[in-house]
Amino acid sequence: MFSLKSEPFLNIQQPMLFINTHTFNFPANIRSIRQYYHSKGIRKLYTLKKTTHESPTDTAFIHGYWLDLQMLKKLDAKTALNLQSSLAVQFLHSTIGAYPCA
């Protein structure tokens, strides 16, 4: 969730994928990501609209959405998880040539 928040800038050359939820897409978090995003190497940044930090997990399937009650219309849990998984697989395929298992 805040994996980069307190980390000093590291000169990472490996490909990096950032998938943000809507509720974590605010200036302070974007500033933390920006230094890595604009560094050398392959960088991909996505924000999934109408999602909370529980969207890319299985808790939305088990308990339903219960966090961030201000966001009235949330992306369907299955759609959110499929989007995140697809972005991750696409990133792995394009950067290291990994193919999903059949």
UniProtKB/TrEMBL annotation:
Keywords, A to Z, come to: Hydrolase, Lipid degradation, Lipid metabolism
- Gene3D superfamilies of this UniProt entry? alpha/beta hydrolase
Principal EC category:
hydrolase
Membrane-spanning regions, if any?
Answer: none
**Presence of the UniProt keyword Lipid metabolism in the record:** yes
Q: Tell me if Acetylation is a UniProt keyword of this record.
A: no
**Enzyme Commission number, as recorded:** 3.1.1.47
Q: Which residues form a coiled coil?
A: none
Q: Which GO terms describe its biological process?
A: lipid catabolic process
**What's a Gene Ontology MF term here?**
1-alkyl-2-acetylglycerophosphocholine esterase activity
This one is known as 1-alkyl-2-acetylglycerophosphocholine esterase
